[in-house]
Every structure is written in C-alpha cells, then in structure tokens.
Amino acid sequence: MISQIIFNGKKSYTDFGVTLSYFLPQPPSLKIIKEDVPFMHGSYDFSLLYGEQAYNDRRILCRLQFFDTDKIRLYIKYGELLEWLIGSGTSRLEYTGEPGLYYMARVEETPSWNRFYATGSLDFAFTAYPFKFGIRNEGTDIWDEFNFETDYMQDVKFNVVGTKNIVIYNPSSRKIVPTVVCDAAIDVVKGNITYKFSTGSTKDWHFELEKGKNEFTLKGNGNIEFVFRKEVL
User: Fold this and answer.
1) Would the CA dihedral through 93, 94, 98, 100 be positive or negative?
2) Tell me: the pLDDT tens digits for 177-193?
3) pTM
4) For 50, left (φ over 0), alpha (ψ -120 to 50), or beta?
5) 20 to 30 A from 187, CA-CA: which of 19, 139, 164, 218?
6) Across 39-53, 56-70, 111-125, which has the greatest mean pLDDT?
7) Are strands 10-11 and 112-116 parallel, antiparallel or unpaired?
8) Could you tell me how far CA 154 lies from the centroid of its own chain?
C-alpha cells in the first residue's frame, strides 16, 4: 500500500496522484519557564509548576514528488498542491503509516518548489499541535488500529446499582478531561474527592484522568460513560 497524507479531507496520492517521499514528525520542544534572581547561582525552574510539562508546537517535514511529461500540466499540479496545503488553514492531518492517529496542523511557511525536466517536488513543513489524537474514542477497539504495546482494551460504559469500583486506563502522554455522560445522577469518587455528575453530558475541568491507571468508586443508580480519546507525543 502506498503511504500518503490525508489533509483537510483530501489524500495526497488518491486525489492528487503525487508520491510522499517522506513524512518526518519532529518532537515538540519543551516549554522551559525559568526565573533569574539577583545574586543567586542558577535560576528557579517553574516549568512543572502546574504538575505537567508543557510543550511547544511541533514541525512535520514532508516532501511530495510528481511526474508529467507536459510542463504545463506540471505547473497546474503545483498550483493545485499549493491551494490544498496553504489554503486549508488548520485542519486534521493523518499519515497512513500511523493508523488510528491524527494531528491538528497547518502549513505556515512557503513550500519550496523544485523542477527538473518532467519531475517536480514540493518540500514543506506542517506546524502541528504537540500531541497526536486518537481517531476514535477509548473503548472503541478496531483491530487494524489497535496497538498491543500501548493501547488498552477496556470498558468505558458502566451500569451502576448502588456502588461499583472501576478502573479506567488513560493511554495518553498527559492528563485528560473526559466528557461524562449519565442517564441519572451519579457520584464519582476519586481518592478523597467526590465529583457529582447529573443527567446529561458534563465536562468538569477539575475532573481529570491521570496518565495510566485510574481507580474510581461510582455511587448511584443508572448508566455512566466516560468519553475521551488519547493524546500522545
């Protein structure tokens, strides 16, 4: 199968007939927050002040190549690619070599265009959010996309009658705030803190899933679902 990128709903090979020479996601750089104090050796590092390392946007280096014996058609293809890449703004970006994941990205810098006889190439870089997102919510197990090294096969929907102890795994590289959907009032106890969720869909920014294993006690009578997708570096 030919590798390609899918950006703003269009595929590089299927829709444009161009070949992806490389797709190189660069790691996001750390956001380092330091403060110098007069007469002090070194500095104070506040980068983890809120408990998690923050990151800057990441760059993804790409090259597309195409061939046509007609020079006019070659330049037409070049214009089509520019319109697709530059005119899309921030959009969803997928790479077929990373099934089940997508980036949020845009092309901010002018691509570099090269032509040699009947061959054209376009070098460019996406600027992307530092984390990749899971295409599907957790609890949706698609075998072709399931990573047996990092993913979890788990339930995220629970029927509660009285009290129930549950475990949810967050496979992300960071804490995640899930959307909690209930058909009745249900309390979620996390450690010594009780979060109260009423009927409907709720996103409480104080209620977070830690990286890895999360143990909760549910109290109430009804159904509850934790809706979230992974975010990984």
Assistant:
1) positive
2) 999 999 999 999 999 99
3) 0.83
4) alpha
5) 139
6) 56-70
7) unpaired
8) 20
